[in-house]
Amino acid sequence: MESKADKIIHNKETCNTNVTAVRDTLYVLNGKWKLPMIIALTNGPKRFNEIQRALGDITPKILSKELRELELNEFVVRKVSSTVPVSITYELTPYSKSLEKVLEELKNWGIEHRERIIASRRQPAA
Q1: pTM here?
Q2: What angle do CA 19, 7, 24 make, to 5 degrees?
Q3: In Å, what is the CA distance from 22 to each residue of 5, 17, 18, 28, 126?
Q4: CATH class in words for 3-122
């Protein structure tokens, strides 16, 4: 049976198209924080400090910058409530669901990679 990978045509044009698509993706999701931030918001809206606690060692300056970039790329929406004091929450947009398959595959690969590295470190050197 022919797999999806077998159907991919490999030539210079498709290679260039694929490279451009991956570069565009990395441009939007670059850095070590954006995808973990999206994961942190999957259970619903969070305030700034809640996101910071969920991520651990991210600085407020970097968190603010990354949230702005996710907002500009339509993955996150910032909601201001007219409470006293003002309450600001961040939540995922419906568009962020377009990353679900990517995040699932990255998670699976990460688990497999960690297991591989741990196993290879346990083996005695030849």
Answers
A1: 0.77
A2: 20
A3: 17, 9, 6, 10, 38
A4: mainly alpha
